[in-house]
Amino acid sequence: RVISDRQAYAVIPPRKNAKPWKDTKVHSQERNE
């Protein structure tokens, strides 16, 4: 159970890292244009 809770917390940091990923998507769209 503790590991499950830890995994839930581990999913939160990647979410913050997902912000830079959004930037990459924006660059991809600009390249398409």
From TrEMBL:
Cite the record's Basic and acidic residues compositional bias ranges.
20-33
Ranges for region Disordered: 1-33
* UniProt protein name: TnpA domain protein
Native organism is: Acinetobacter baumannii 21072
Lineage, opening ranks:
Bacteria, Pseudomonadati, Pseudomonadota, Gammaproteobacteria, Moraxellales
